[in-house]
Amino acid sequence: MFYLTYRPKTINELDNVRVKERMRKILESKDLPHAFLLVGPKGMGKTSTARIFAKAVNCLKNKFAGKSDSIEPCNKCANCTTITSGGSPDVVEQDAASNRGIDEIRKLISEASYSPMSGKYRVYIIDEAHMITPDAFNALLKTLEEPPKTVIFILATTNEEKIPVTIISRCVKISFGLAQKADLLHMLKRIIKSEKISVSDFF
Hints:
Distance between the termini: 23 Å
Mean pLDDT: 89
CATH topology: Rossmann fold
Helix content: 25-40%
CATH class: Alpha Beta
CATH superfamily: P-loop containing nucleotide triphosphate hydrolases
Shape: globular
Number of domains: 1
C-alpha cells in the first residue's frame, strides 16, 4: 500500500506544510521543548511526525550530533535505522488505549529518569493520549513540570478536549487539522516520482 510504503521519513517529506514548517523551526531553534501535544484526526501523520522528530534529535550525522548543519535525520546511521525499525532503547512508543493506568505511567516515568543509551535524548511517544486516566495524568504532570533534561515527551491525540488543561499548558501544541489541497498534491507528487508513473499533468 502506498500510504505505508511512502510514509514520510524526513521533515522535508512531511506533506502537511504547516506542520513541516513548525517542526523545522523547532528543530532549528536553540532550545528544544521537553513536551509536545500533536492534535488532529486519525491518519494525518501524527505518529510519523513524532518518529521523524525522534530520529532527528538522535541522528549521529546531523546538527544534533555536531556533524553538520542539517536538522534532518540521515536515515542511515545506527540510531536512525533502529528507531525506524522500532528497536531503539531510547525511543518508546506506548498506546494509551491499552496502557492508560497509573501503574503504566509510573513505569514510564521511572524509565525516563535513566540516561539515553545510544542517542542524545530519550523520546516517549504516547498515542491516544486522551485515554490516560485522571490519576495517571496527575502522575505525568509532575514529570512534565520538572522533566529530565534528556527526555522529550510527545503526546498524540484525536480528542484534545479530553486532555487536562494542566497537561496542555506544559506542551507545545501542534495542530494537524484536515489535509489541504497543497498537502495532497505534495504527497501524490512524491509517490508518482518514486514509482516513475507517467500521468497527465493534473497539477
